[in-house]
Amino acid sequence: MGLSTEAIAEAYAAACLDELRAPKAGNVHDFGDGHGMTVSDFEVSAKVTAPLIAGPGARVGERVWSAIAATRAAVDCNTNLGIVLMSAPLALAAEREGSGDLAGAVGRVLADLDLGDASGVFEAIVLAQPAGLGESAEHDVREPATVTLLEAMRTAEDRDRIAWNYTHGFEDVFRLGVPTFRDAFVRWNDWLWATAAVHFAFMAAFRDTHIDREHGGTAADAARQEAAALLPRLAAAADPATLMPEILALDRRLKADGHNPGTSADLTVATVFAVRLSGLRSAAKDG
Fold this sequence. Notes:
The protein is mainly α. The chain has 14 helices and no strands.
């Protein structure tokens, strides 16, 4: 049995805010704005997109396009294209099948993507105007879609981790993000630090493709190495708050260089959304 529209919208909006509240490095969050965007921009974006991501009966392409159109009208900047791209299949999967086998349900949603989904996503990408995303000699988003969305994502998977997740069944979310979150939550009983642990796990696991597209492989490798050096210390900490000075110092360095690990942030929202859809939030004791 599928989840209700209201439950899906609530889980999505809350996941967006969790990611903002958590102590991370390089992104916009409660501890610092950055990259020409503010916490308020992201809060507004979450609010206006929640009912559209959860739109009953809407396909992935419809959800993505309507959410990005609403975002541009509300904040006039690209706060959430990656978040929306990752969240729309999760929302549709939860609507269709519930959360008992969310990974399997997402796989079936991805296999069902069609030409209309590609058209909606292409139009949303053009509207969002992300740096470098969608620029390809094959299946350029500025041209009419001629293949399914999944086929289009296959041509981008080598340079964009969100596209890679489409072609690999959201593997980062279900095989890295969710287990990392659950382990961290059991260890600390703190929802926001578990969210932060997910973000650092993604930063350390692979080059952030947002940094890579904007600043190149050397910059992306440097950010990955810094996160990889911090991650084991975070995992071993009895109280993760003791690492706040180092996290915020890394945050300042990345922002000073204009290096935004945005893909890691997008995957973090998707992970927490998946966790919330699966019902773990009800077991949290930290409010």
